[in-house]
Design a protein that fits this description.
The protein is 49% helix and 10% strand. The chain is α/β, with parallel strands linked by helices. The chain folds into five domains: 187 residues, Winged helix-like DNA-binding domain superfamily/Winged helix DNA-binding domain (Arc Repressor Mutant, subunit A); 89 residues, Serine Threonine Protein Phosphatase 5, Tetratricopeptide repeat (Alpha Horseshoe), CATH 1.25.40; 164 residues, 3-Layer(aba) Sandwich (Rossmann fold); 72 residues; 108 residues, Arc Repressor Mutant, subunit A (Orthogonal Bundle), CATH 1.10.10.10. Helix 26 crosses helix 27. Belongs to the AfsR/DnrI/RedD regulatory family. Pfam families: BTAD (PF03704), Trans_reg_C (PF00486). InterPro entries: AfsR-DnrI-RedD_regulator, Apaf_helical, BTAD, OmpR/PhoB-type_DNA-bd, P-loop_NTPase, Sig_transdc_resp-reg_C-effctor, TPR-like_helical_dom_sf, WH-like_DNA-bd_sf.
Length: 695
Amino acid sequence: MPLNRGAGDCASDPRETGDSGVAAESADTADERLRVNLLGPVEAGRGDSPLDLGPVRRQAVLAALVLRADTAVTQQRLLDDVWGDNPPGTGHRVLPSYVYALRRALDAPHTAPDRSLIRGVRGGYRFVPEGVHTDTAELAERAALARDARAAADLPAALEQLTTALALFRGEEPLSGLPGPLAEAERRRLAQQRRALHRQRVECLVDLGRHTEALDALDALAATASPTEPYDEPLAALRMRALYGSDRQAEALAAYRQTRDRLREELGVEPGEELRRIHQAVLRHDHRLLLGRPSATSSTPPDAPRTPVVPTRSGSAGPSRPTLNELPGDTACLVGREAELARLTAPAPPDAVSVAAVDGTAGVGKTALVVRAAWTLAAQHPDGCLFVDLHAYGGPHDRVSPQRALHRMLRALNGADDELPDGLDGLGGLDGLARPDAAAELGELVAAWRTATSGLRLLLVVDNVRAAQDVRPLIPAGPGSRVLVAGRQRLPGLDADVRLTVEPLGAGEAVGLLRHLLGADRADREPEAARELARRCGGLPLALRIAGARLQSRPTWTLTHLIGRMPDADRRLGELRAEDRSVESAFRVSYDQLCPDLQHAFRAVGHSPTSRFDALTPAAMLGRPRADAEDLLERLVDASLLQQPQPGRYRMHDLVRALAHRLAATRPAETTSARTAVLHLYTAAGRLASDWGPQ
């Protein structure tokens, strides 16, 4: 019986048309290679001859080794992968017998143990993939080639690679019938990858103008979709684009309404930004957005010149160096920031420099917001987009002074040190604030910067700012330029046209971010747990992303399990960490920047009985007049460690409050004094209420 080499998610096996990227090999060599296929029922063979892999547990051991090819896997790990919580009593004797049988099936006759495909290592085994074709490795390679082709705008090549990759899947699910936690987790992962490849293939079809094929592919995908498919917003957006490209605008709008209604009624959330953008484009007949762009290979003749010709700064046409663009990559998902984006990207006066100041607590998504806004505005600034990180919340050696920032930006505009204005080559190399001639050097750099930018329309993003005086020297002089400033500290000393405080996400938006991070299938299996996890993260994007990362790295964890690991606010801080990122450290940096009086006030607020209060309780705990306490609280608002829902009233985010409480617990005497003051205050308030009597 011939080995099944791929049933195909698409109409035919496109490998018959050739291979555009994967290394070719002769038919004889290909026939001799061992093949191990996991993207369906597990099978192995040489040429057309299948190999007997034995019972499903033995196949599961092989799959566990192949999935971790070239990695040592301990016997205990294999037992956990294949048997989970119910290993056989003779597990450490069963595994060697399974491996022995697999070696006999897979290795060529008379293969020495040290040349076997499954080699013994200390305490376990390692699968050596040299000379073996696995469909999972080909899948990864085809997907990478498709990504590269799409990045190069070679859509036909990307489509071919995606179609070939999908043809590797056989039957309804990978690792079909295999037992064990690893097989179950891999089935979910590969199913998500399969769906993502389908989505990318449909996107290529839409961008190539093959709308009927795209709709057919979407219909076929819907027929085998999971119960959460109606909530797949990217697929809904592609369906709308394909319908619009088929001159079926009314159906495209109906598809949007159907998806929106399902999201509202069943999940309690609104459509995301991308789907709403497609909806608006359909209403506006925005052909450019909806119908995509032609690929490089289909639109450019083979002998056409490749040198870009753009207007130069003098206005004449001619060859030009690439436009200066230092913007970081845009985040894949920015949820619930439509109103803020609209304010940051609103039209600005063409004859002036526009400045927008964005502030907010640590981890709330300020940088992601300004970067998305910058990419939206980039096309309006043909002379370049600059990005400067002042590292105001890093260590002393990380911080970037205005001198250093100006020096670097002048170099970026001019291209090399020898093109800087005379006398400025050596400036800015040190943090000039510590030098006696710092003011004079800063003045010279500012003058050079304003001269260099006076005729340019630039976009400048300045991130991690703590003081207005660090931003003012960096503002370009060219009319029509824009500056987007982001930092934790409010900057009343900066003349800004737009001031924006970024707040934590609302409940529906936070759940939407979790759905993006975990995949709709996983999040929607536990809708109540998703809402509770979003609540425990306080709508803070950093906390949500860390929680999502932990769940992604633990495919066997449920959302309910993670929630159970953070029963209170203090444990929550401990759980919300992943490698070098943690919510606690992000807030702690803000705390460490405070002066001693403000640090004391912050710790005192941690003893407040509620997360909402006025200045009276902190004043009692600090032993200060109410006016002095209110001044300290206002300065904590400026540092984005407190929120102010209305004048005279303050609110502390639950996770910030947990840090304040943890820090306060390190000062026992301070804690005793604060609690005694609160007790006296509340006792006095009770007596006063009793004296007045019922009113």
